């Protein structure tokens, strides 16, 4: 199954992501080749996961485990099989209709297990997709800090993905091929306190956003003679 996933990622998922996004990658050399490691990226589209699988080095892509909402990706048997065995998601339970997860349930247990197994966990600290209109970043949730606290020696790599929200906006079902950019920052060290760590992570992600180059499909360029 591991070999099948590797082949499908390289022969299907990666070419599809490149076709849809033509992603420019800045700082690719900062992506970890082994775990335990944590990738923390902004989230505007389901394309984000596919995009990260596409930009990772081939020798490390099989170790990348995207954290994803169990209620969304496992609700259909076919999508669930593909999500688990090809995309390799780490299923995370989330509250429904404002209800919290069951008392005593550790929703991060699958992510902890993946890190303990030496894998690379991709998390989207915003917890849900934005509207994608302006690549704005929402409030970061504390799950990534809990993982960093549990694995203080694991590097936490900030990533800014620009443009994926316009390739496949929230609520859309058909992607539109457009250029995107992926910026990879220096690791954010665990500070010993969740609040200061989250502040440092947010600052690092916003710094990457500020460095993002103009995308080739920007409105300004479209209007240029």
Automatic annotation (TrEMBL):
Listed pathway(s): Lipid metabolism
Residue ranges annotated for the Phospholipid/glycerol acyltransferase domain, each copy included: 37-164
UniProt-recorded Gene Ontology molecular function terms: acyltransferase activity
Keyword flag Acyltransferase: yes
Domain of life: Bacteria
Species this protein is from: Caulobacter hibisci
Protein name: 1-acyl-sn-glycerol-3-phosphate acyltransferase
UniProt entry keywords in alphabetical sequence: Acyltransferase, Transferase
Short name of one Pfam family: Acyltransferase
Coiled coil: none
């Amino acid at each position: 199954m591991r070999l099948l996933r590797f082949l499908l990622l390289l022969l299907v998922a990666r070419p599809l992501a490149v076709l849809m996004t033509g992603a420019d990658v800045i700082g690719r050399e900062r992506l970890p080749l082994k775990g335990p490691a944590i990738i923390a990226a902004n989230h505007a589209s389901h394309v984000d996961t596919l995009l990260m699988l596409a930009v990772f080095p081939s020798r490390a892509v099989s170790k990348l485990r995207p954290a994803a909402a169990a209620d969304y990706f496992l609700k259909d048997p076919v999508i669930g099989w593909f999500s688990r065995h090809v995309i390799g998601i780490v299923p995370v339970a989330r509250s429904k209709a404002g209800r919290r997860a069951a008392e005593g349930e550790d929703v991060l247990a699958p992510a902890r297990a993946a890190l303990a197994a030496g894998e690379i966990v991709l998390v989207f600290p915003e917890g849900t997709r934005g509207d994608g209109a302006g690549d704005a970043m929402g409030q970061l949730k504390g799950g990534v800090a809990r993982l960093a606290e549990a694995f203080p020696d694991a590097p936490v790599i900030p990533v800014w993905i620009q443009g994926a929200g316009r390739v496949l906006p929230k609520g859309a079902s058909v992607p539109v091929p457009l250029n995107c950019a992926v910026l990879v920052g220096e690791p954010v060290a665990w500070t010993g306190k969740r609040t200061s760590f989250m502040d440092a992570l947010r600052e690092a992600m916003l710094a990457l956003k500020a460095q993002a180059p103009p995308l080739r499909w920007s409105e300004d360029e479209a209007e240029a003679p």
